[in-house]
Amino acid sequence: MKPEIQAKFATYPVEAQEQLKSIRRLVFSVAEENDLGTVEETLKWGELSYLVNGGSTIRMDWKSNDPDFIKVYFHCQTSLVETFREIYRYEFTYEGKRAIVIPLGASDSGPLRHCLQMALKYHRLKHLPLLGA
To answer: Under a CB-based contact definition with an 8 Å cutoff, are residues 55 and 78 in contact?
Structure first.
């Protein structure tokens, strides 16, 4: 993990750190399982950011003004969040067309894994109904 990423994780409360690190592991796992190549991990707008070739950027963060939640952000000009809302209507809460809102301590990663997979493969799937889901 790059020093700037480690430093960012260190700014979060312990529970948020654990959950964000879990989602980070999920991103890397999905990329590896789907043979998507190297995951570019960086900070964008001060938030943890992940991207693979052919995918759409995934960002995630915890904010002190909404301390009970982690947010996983997706590019708002894609059909990603609209598709997630259609497929996983009751599994998540959403913030407009840009984020999945996850309560701290949530543990079920099946639907989130699928959403991350669609984002990481977005440019291969964007022409398919419901992104091929």
So the answer is: no
Quick check: helix, strand or coil at residue 111? helix
> For the segment 90-133, what is each residue's pLDDT rounded down to a tens digit?
999 999 889 999 999 887 678 999 999 999 998 776 666 666 66
Are 53 and 37 in contact, with CB atoms under 8 Å apart? yes
Q: Whole-prediction pTM value?
A: 0.90
Task: State the fold for domain 3-124.
Answer: Aspartate Aminotransferase, domain 1 (3.90.1150)
CA distances, 99 to each of 1, 10, 76, 90, 109 (Å): 24, 23, 8, 15, 16
